[in-house]
Write a structure and sequence with these properties.
Blueprint (H helix, E strand, L loop, with lengths): L13 H12 L5 H8 L3 H13 L11 H4 L2 E9 L4 H9 L4 E6 L6 E7 L2 H12 L5 E9 L18 H8 L5
Antiparallel strand pairs: 1-3, 1-4, 2-3
Helix pairs in contact: 1-2, 2-3
């Protein structure tokens, strides 16, 4: 595929993926430095970066390991009954201690990550805040003891996802 054109079948082309690859290693780089590394101009990189951000494909943020700064991190699996999954997911996403919410296929309808200062706060979030939400029928909490890997440099990123398939994943119908 020509790097300067986008196929209608793909959300990203090689230039977009190159920009993302460079930013995954160091999200603080300037557009001119990213351009230098991939062989494109600073205005091209800026325009493409802004497009990727506006489409919700990328964002740049500092990552940290909660187990090293204090506090408790937990993954929570939730099953939903009687209401649309997306409605519950949106309500959960408003909680300030919940940093990741995803609708899923499989045993759980929603997967989320929670951060709390201590066990009491985690208990309040799971046993009170989440349990109050209409539609949650089952909930399982997995407390993180130690993060062994949290890497955004995995090789699978380079595999293209056709736009028509990605659109179905993004626009998942609620049940």
């Amino acid at each position: 595929m020509d790097a300067s054109t986008r196929s209608e079948g793909h959300l990203l082309d090689d230039v977009d993926r190159d920009i993302i690859d460079v930013l995954r290693v160091d999200g603080r780089l300037s557009f001119s430095e990213v351009g230098r590394r991939i062989g494109f101009s600073e205005p091209t990189v800026r325009q493409r970066y802004n497009r990727l951000v506006s489409m919700g494909i990328i964002y740049v943020a500092a990552m940290y390991d909660e187990t090293k700064i204090g506090g408790i991190s937990a993954h929570v699996g939730i099953r939903i009954a009687g209401v649309p999954v997306a409605k519950v997911a949106k309500e959960i996403a408003d909680h300030p201690n919940i940093k990741y919410v995803a609708c899923a296929l499989g045993y759980y309808d929603i997967i989320l990550d929670v951060f709390a200062q201590d066990a009491q706060e985690l208990g309040r979030i799971v046993l009170q805040d989440l349990r109050r939400i209409k539609g949650i029928s089952e909930l399982e909490t997995l407390t993180v003891l130690e993060v062994m890997k949290d890497d955004y440099l995995w090789k699978g990123f380079r595999d293209a996802i056709p736009a028509n398939r990605a659109g179905r994943l993004i626009a998942r119908p609620s049940r």
